[in-house]
Amino acid sequence: MATPTEQVYLGIDLGTGGVKAAVVARDGSVLGTASSPCVMRHPHSGWAEQNPEDYWTASCEVAKDAIAQADIDPEHVKGLAFAGQMLTLVPVDATGRPTRPAISWLDSRADAEAMRITRRMGGRAMVRSFAGAVPSGKDVIAKVSWIRSHEPDVYAHTEAFLDATGYLVARATGELLIDHSGVSGTGIINRRTRGWSRPLALLGGWPLRKMPSVRRSVDVAGSLRRDAAEDLGLRPGVPVVMGMGDAAAAEVGTGALGEGDAHVYLGTSGWLGVHLSRPRHLGRSGIVSIASADPTSWLLIAETQTAGATVDWFLGAVGLGPAEPDDDGNRYDALSRLVERSPSGARGVLFAPWLTGERAPVTDTALRGAFVGLGLDHDRSDLARAVLEGVAINMRWSADEIRAAGIPLDVLRAAGEERAPMSGSRSSPTCWAPASSG
Q1: To the nearest whole percent, how much of the chain has pLDDT over 70?
Q2: How many separate domains does the chain show?
Q3: Pairing mode, strands 239-245 and 77-84
Q4: What is the pLDDT of residue 170?
Q5: Which positions ≥6 away from 275 have C-beta within 8 Å?
Q6: What per-residue confidence (pLDDT) applies to 427?
Q7: CA angle, corner 402, sides to 196 and 428, nearest 5?
Q8: Which of 248, 271, 293 is the last residue in one of the domains?
Q9: pTM for this predicted structure
């Protein structure tokens, strides 16, 4: 057990597939971890929603489990911070309670609204010139417009449109806030102040009166409320740091914080991120800059919408899903064995990993995945390797776009979830392509 004078900190990461927590000592050593899943619901084609209450319930569960694993007195926890999936929309009322289910970043219902916003702002070329990229039906600005048009009662009762990180901060502190990375994810950002851009909001019909106040990722958002402290198993009054979106958090976690340093992340989605001192936008390729957790820097990001999600889809499709694990209970080990049976190149099978559309290097919510080159001589080991290589090739495409813009990608680090064949090792087929292109 930690000594009475030892200071430890609790970090909670709200991902698409679930919530993770870590108890960390002042020297950076990890004392305890825990995770818990969150369910995604698809009530209509193209829709993806989650229950925000599940976010909080899972956060409380993993917080207590991580503290128990660390074998510490909760009184020793001196600070709490959150990181969360970006571009997920959580509308809340004045008390911080959700007015509807959260609309996931995977959701593409708002294509019509995105096109109307683009026309209102002067067309695609004009929007790219001042916002960096053209909004799609998966972007927050379009989803807010969808709620205003299709759910006017929800819109009227919504005090603030939060993101996933901001929702957890609200539950913990009662404050309705968003960090710089969350603001930049909407595209309605003043690049000088990193706050809301009033001119862009006016052009896009963005309701600033319903937007949360902005804080830096490193700012203290408030103190832990008594009811939230009881839920989390902590003492009231613990400082709650604002935190950041998951992409900014991955940049910090990989240590890719020097000019031009890059990292690859593989989770439900995947991305290639580059740390820059000034924002760059490759809008035609869907590659844009968001605010880094470092208040003075930016993160150029090329997102692959479904990376690990393609793995989970494939495992379910071939009978290795959660309900049918292999003999030792680890379906990712089973996938590794399948992949090893097929040579590099999957014997000519190609897989397009666009199961919910794509953002980079081509932004199109209507794109869908496909296997190409199948023959009677192929088996599921070839399909398994093609799935992983398809993600890698898509990310290499983005890497090539970034290099073509004069950014060399000399330093490339990797991080991600514990999907065995997507572990981020140099030998992994999902990391080989972006690391070796050029």
Answers
A1: 92
A2: 2
A3: parallel
A4: 98
A5: 251, 256, 257, 258, 259, 260, 261, 262, 292, 294, 297, 298, 299
A6: 42
A7: 110
A8: 248
A9: 0.91
